[in-house]
Write a structure and sequence with these properties.
The structure holds two protein chains of two kinds. Chain A contains no helices and eleven strands. Chain A is mainly beta. In chain A, strands 2, 4, 5, 6, 9, 10 and 11 form a seven-stranded mixed β-sheet that branches. In chain A, strands 1-3-8-7 form a four-stranded antiparallel β-sheet, with no helix packed on it. By secondary structure, chain B is an all-beta fold. Chain B has no helices and nine strands. In chain B, a hairpin with a 6-residue loop joins strand 3 and strand 4. Classes of the chains: A mainly beta, B mainly beta. At the A-B interface, strand 5 and strand 10 of A face strand 7 and strand 8 of B.
């Protein structure tokens, strides 16, 4: 059974870059059927889709975040990563990585989430 | 892209039915049968409950059902149980090959 696990700093200073990695176990990230996603949830608020990547490298981003987001994949490590630049307090959130099945758009596997706080 | 519109809260007594609406546009919900629903108890990751408008993954009780009409999708919980108390989110694929989530609905079992 596929499992996803987020990792990275829990505290980032304003104006710096937030960097997280999602490690995939129990299956290959190189399955062509899936896109690999980042989703976030500010404390007490709803889910926001950040973007995704296919193992071949194609990416799609939320238009509201596109100028600050980069998602990359490392198939040799079975991982994908998120970089979010120029962060502010508004970027404080629980960040989830998740797998979406391409043809029917179901997010069927999620990481447990990791809280990232933006503060000096 | 704007979040899909859901009611902030719905409530019902045990055994009753509740329905959550999810309203989008003809660039997302109205154009694709790629609407999913997620259950999120406090402090946990979302769990897939319905996909492709009306399909249940294995292990999800048949008390949960989904439908769609035009730009609005709906999730119905029949025979409400205490364990159903959680936040629920819809999501949809969009014409820009992106995804959008709903604003979220808190389900309270009275």
């Amino acid at each position: 059974q596929v499992q996803l696990q987020e990792s990275g700093p829990g505290l980032v200073k304003p104006s710096q870059t937030l960097s997280l990695t999602c490690s995939v176990s129990g299956g290959s990230i190189s399955s062509g059927d899936y896109y690999w996603n980042w989703i976030r949830q500010p404390p007490g608020k709803g889910l926001e889709w950040i973007g995704n990547i296919h193992y071949r490298g194609s990416t799609f981003y939320n238009p509201s975040l596109k100028s600050r987001v980069t998602i990359s994949v490392d198939t040799s490590k079975n991982q994908f990563s998120l970089n979010l630049s120029s962060v502010t307090a508004a970027d404080t959130a629980v960040y989830y990585c998740a797998r979406v099945l391409n043809w029917n758009s179901r997010f069927d596997c999620w990481g447990q989430g990791t809280l990232v706080t933006v503060s000096s | 892209q704007s979040a899909l519109t859901q009611p902030p809260s719905v409530s019902g007594s045990p055994g009753q039915s509740v329905t959550i609406s999810c309203t989008g546009t003809n660039s997302d919900v109205g154009s694709y049968n790629r609407v999913s629903w997620y259950q999120q108890p406090p402090g946990t990751a979302p769990k897939l409950m319905i996909y492709a408008v009306s399909n249940r993954p294995s292990g999800v009780p048949d008390r949960f059902s989904g439908s769609k009409s035009g730009n609005t999708a709906s999730l119905t919980i029949s025979g409400l149980q205490a364990e159903d108390e959680a936040d629920y989110y819809c999501s949809s694929y969009t014409s820009s090959s992106t995804y959008v989530f709903g604003s979220g609905t808190k389900v309270t079992v009275l």
